[in-house]
Design brief:
With 111 residues, this protein is mainly β. The protein has a single domain, classed as Jelly Rolls. The protein contains no helices and nine strands. The strands form two sheets. It has a six-stranded antiparallel sheet, with no helix packed on it. The chain has a three-stranded antiparallel sheet with strand order 6-5-8, with no helix packed on it. It starts with 11 loop residues before the first strand and ends in a 5-residue tail after the last strand. 18% of the residues are buried.
């Protein structure tokens, strides 16, 4: 069993504008998957990329944008998105405040 709060979980600076937290992983007992939280400061974005695993996004705070397969999808708190295997995508902050989202991937997606 594992219980915590996001404010107590280590934050790893990925770039000047992006922070990552591993909320739940096999280390905490969730076999085969990892739940991460990303915080994108104003101007923050992930690079365009694709990978051979699917993942799920859930917007927590702020305004974001998911660019996937040539189309933009606005994200606001409560928005969910499924990104299939090998889909070209990018997540970015679309507002003036921080954008926070959860991303769930198979364990190999967080290596």
């Amino acid at each position: 069993m594992f219980v915590s709060h996001r404010d107590l979980i280590e934050k790893k600076q990925i770039s000047e504008y992006v922070t990552k937290q591993v909320l739940v992983s096999p280390k905490e007992g969730w076999k085969d998957h990892v739940m991460r939280m990303f915080t994108l400061e104003k101007g923050g974005k992930a690079p365009h990329h694709s990978h051979p695993w699917q993942h799920i996004l859930y917007a927590v705070e702020g305004k974001g944008n998911l660019f996937m397969e040539g189309k933009d999808y606005p994200l606001t708190p409560g928005s969910v998105a499924y990104v299939p295997d090998d889909a070209d995508h990018q997540v970015s902050n679309a507002g003036d405040e921080k954008f926070v989202f959860i991303c769930i991937v198979p364990e190999r997606g967080d290596q």
